[in-house]
Amino acid sequence: MDDRLECSAVRRGEQPPWIVSDELWAEIDPLLPPRPPRRHRFPGRKPLDDRKVLCGILFVLYTGIPWEYLPQELGFGSGMTCWRRLRDWNDAGVWQRLHEVLLGKLRAADQLDMSRAVIDGSHVRALKGGPKPVRARSTAAARARNTTSSPTRAASPSPSA
């Protein structure tokens, strides 16, 4: 891969967790939906390589930065490009299929420990219901009396002379 994909926050000799290995890419690539063909006339920009975009997605998810702050210097494309691909791949069911493929590989290698897996979860509705919540009294302060002036009676018309 491109040497621009390295980051100084990772120790020398270690691969950053957002860089997709060749082995993992071989599993992911067939699961991605095919790109629509480019128009002959006015083809627009060439789409970014899926692997670089995936690295950008993983970088954002790993670091927690907002999509719009994805550094262009890393070569992953813009944050919006990465976000759109994530959305499109999610809609196409890529992540679910990848999860199933990786679980199958672990199962085949006898490395899947299901001792902590939840087999069935259920909710039982309380038919009689719980206690009704009591309306809480207001904790707002009562309106204080105005001490600078007191109410006066309405003026009565004086008898005309």
Automatic annotation (TrEMBL):
<dbReference type="InterPro" id="IPR025161">
    <property type="entry name" value="IS402-like_dom"/>
</dbReference>
<dbReference type="Pfam" id="PF13340">
    <property type="entry name" value="DUF4096"/>
</dbReference>
<protein>
    <submittedName>
        <fullName>Transposase</fullName>
    </submittedName>
</protein>
<dbReference type="InterPro" id="IPR052909">
    <property type="entry name" value="Transposase_6_like"/>
</dbReference>
<feature type="compositionally biased region" description="Low complexity">
    <location>
        <begin position="136"/>
        <end position="161"/>
    </location>
</feature>
<feature type="domain" description="Insertion element IS402-like">
    <location>
        <begin position="20"/>
        <end position="99"/>
    </location>
</feature>
<feature type="region of interest" description="Disordered">
    <location>
        <begin position="128"/>
        <end position="161"/>
    </location>
</feature>
